[in-house]
Design brief:
Helix 2 (21-69) runs antiparallel to helix 4 (81-100). By secondary structure, the chain is an alpha/beta fold. It has 2 domains: 3-281, ABC transporter type 1, transmembrane domain (ABC transporter transmembrane region fold, Up-down Bundle); 302-539, Rossmann fold (3-Layer(aba) Sandwich). The protein is elongated. The strands form 2 sheets. Strands 6-7-8-3-9-10 form a 6-stranded parallel beta sheet, with helices on both faces. Strands 2-1-4-5 form a 4-stranded antiparallel beta sheet, with helices on one face. A hairpin with a 2-residue loop joins strand 1 and strand 2 (314-324). The protein has helices at residues 3-16, 21-69, 73-77, 81-100, 102-122, 124-141, 145-176, 181-235, 240-281, 340-347, 370-376, 391-396, 403-412, 416-420, 439-451, 469-482, 495-500; strands at residues 302-311, 314-324, 329-333, 355-360, 363-364, 377-380, 457-461, 487-491, 503-508, 534-539. It is a multi-pass membrane protein. Its main location: membrane. Residues 529-543 have a biased composition (Gly residues). Residues 512-543 are annotated as: Disordered.
């Protein structure tokens, strides 16, 4: 591109001014060749820089998803869902755009290095004009970055807050509509959108001034150069071609400065975005697999010893001792806030205890790899997550499972008949977050997901709460017939579940540890419970 003004200068001075057709044609050909080279080089540069930038973006998104997937509850509590979505999308895109622009800096530097000596060859006074513009541009650019960085930081926070409001509006509006709560959600969204608009306008005003003022300096230099160069041309010290070349080079220099200003603004945005991404990646998570991870023996018993959990400096569970052997059904019950869900998460090592340990076959779960744990201990949470996708996708969740095994798990969960009644069976799309299934159907799909792979231990956290009593009894019977060696830990207070238990563990949010005691199950569960079953009272807490 920088060679084009030089070719035009030669064509004007040796062809047009001299009234030479041959001279004009002679310099028109290299001008066309340089234009083609510039086109090919520009396309190739954009392709390679785009490929590199998208590779960086893909790596960042993969790292973010991997880190968020390893977050425990305290780590997740630091970020809203919308905030995390903004960091994975908008912030990564800002970094990608900055990476893609790095090659442009090479062109900017080459422009300055080539254009200034070219001015000197034309006329030393034109060199003075070109050199004088550089410190002025630097001075002007020194005023804006700090103001723009602060405004963009505030803008990013507003984007995250609005994204959280949108997430709540989409996911919770139906649940609170009967209470009139959708009005509050809409109002909160409007308030956060208003804040976002205000901060967007503030950042836009600074960005507009930053984009307009610095490029005006080289444009004024063009006017000064035309006055100086025009006077020199009238005196015969500068050719018409040289004056045109100066104007073209100065325009190129002005364009380079304009692009540099835009890149500096983008760098400010990318720096803020990179800081937000780094904030997620730097969030500490529980150390994963140790180098000498152990494998528990097959068909092993699950045992919790002196298990306690703390949140915000307050004990919410424990101490709890619990053992469940192969083929055994242990039910954990207790009032709200007694720590039942916390216990379920500790038994699967979704969280680590404050004190005590959980072992499988005598092997501490902290010594077992996460992948091995996922195969050996299954958890069906109280509020199952239904993903956008087909029924089969929701049950497989990435595992290689054939349709027969899927259907076998669904038969146990008493959901196969419902799935087969759908238009496309197991290939039916469920909609985002399971919008097309009821609460009970969602729980049974989640149960089928936990059954796939036949884990040694299956922990059900009130997983049949939305199911009618007859279906619940069917599920419990089929569970024990389907895998008689699977140890079952069921969090529930429903009579049918308590009646089916081999043992019942009762948690209570007592102010002090209650002594453990074993009594006949008939005193605690309805008639029909298994003979010899017992109830153990242990201390629990909020959670």
């Amino acid at each position: 591109m920088l060679a084009l003004p030089w070719c035009i200068q030669r064509a004007l001075d040796r062809g047009v001014t001299a009234h030479s057709v041959q001279g004009t044609a002679t310099w028109a050909i290299p001008t066309a060749l340089f234009a083609v080279v510039f086109m090919i080089g520009g396309a190739g540069g954009l392709w390679w820089s785009g490929r590199a930038a998208n590779g960086v973006a893909h790596a960042l998104r993969a790292a973010l998803v991997e880190r968020v997937a390893a977050f425990d509850r305290p780590a997740l509590a630091r970020f809203g869902h919308g905030d995390l979505a903004t960091r994975v999308t908008r912030d990564v895109d800002l970094v990608r755009q900055w990476v893609q622009s790095l090659t442009i800096w090479v062109r900017i530097v080459v422009t300055i290095v080539v254009v200034l000596p070219a001015f000197a060859l034309l006329d030393w006074r034109l060199l003075v004009v070109g050199v004088a513009t550089i410190p002025l541009v630097v001075l002007v650019n020194g005023y804006f970055p700090g103001r723009f960085g602060a405004a963009n930081e505030s803008l990013s926070a507003a984007f995250a807050a609005r994204a959280d409001a949108v997430d709540d509006l989409l996911s919770a509006s139906a649940a609170v509509r009967g209470l009139g709560g959708e009005t509050a959600l809409v109002r909160r969204h409007d308030d956060r959108s208003a804040v976002l608009t205000d901060r967007t306008m503030t950042a836009a005003r600074i960005s507009a001034s930053w984009a307009a003022v610095p490029p005006a300096v080289p444009r004024l230099a063009i006017a000064a150069g035309l006055a100086i160069g025009g006077t020199a041309a009238l005196r015969g010290d500068l050719t018409i071609g040289g004056l045109v070349a100066f104007t073209s080079w100065m325009t190129t220099l002005a364009l380079a400065v304009t692009v540099a200003v835009e890149l500096l603004a983008a760098r400010g945005q990318a720096r803020v975005a990179a800081g937000r991404i780094a904030g997620v990646l730097a969030t500490p998570v529980t150390d994963d697999d140790s180098a000498d991870a152990e494998v528990p023996p097959p068909g092993a018993a699950l045992r919790a010893t002196a298990l306690t959990a703390r949140r915000a400096g307050r004990q919410v569970l424990g101490p709890v001792d619990l053992a469940v052997g192969p083929g055994e059904l242990v039910v954990v019950t207790g009032p709200t806030g007694s720590g039942k869900t916390t216990l379920a998460r500790l038994l699967c090592r979704v969280e680590d205890p404050a004190c005590g340990s959980v072992s499988l076959g005598g092997v501490d779960l902290r010594r077992v790899s996460r992948l091995e744990l996922a195969h050996r201990i299954g958890l069906v949470p109280q509020r199952p997550l239904i993903l956008a996708g087909t029924v089969a996708d929701n049950i497989r969740v990435g595992r290689e499972v054939d349709l027969d095994e899927l259907r076998a798990a669904c038969v146990v969960a008493a959901i196969d008949d419902f799935v087969m009644s759908l238009p496309d069976g197991y290939d039916t799309e469920l909609g985002e977050r399971g919008a097309t299934v009821s609460g009970g159907q969602g729980q049974r799909l989640a149960l089928a997901r936990g059954l796939v792979g036949r884990p040694d231990v299956l922990v059900l956290d009130d997983a049949t709460a939305a199911v009618d009593a007859a279906t619940e009894a069917t599920i419990l019977r089929r569970l024990r017939e389907w895998s008689p060696r699977t140890a079952l830990v069921v969090i529930s207070h429903r009579p049918a579940v308590l009646a089916a238990a081999d043992r019942v563990v009762r948690l209570a949010p007592a102010p002090a540890p209650a002594p453990a005691r074993s009594v006949p199950a008939a005193e605690h569960v309805p008639a029909g419970s298994r003979g010899g079953a017992g109830t153990v009272g242990v201390r629990g807490g909020d959670g």
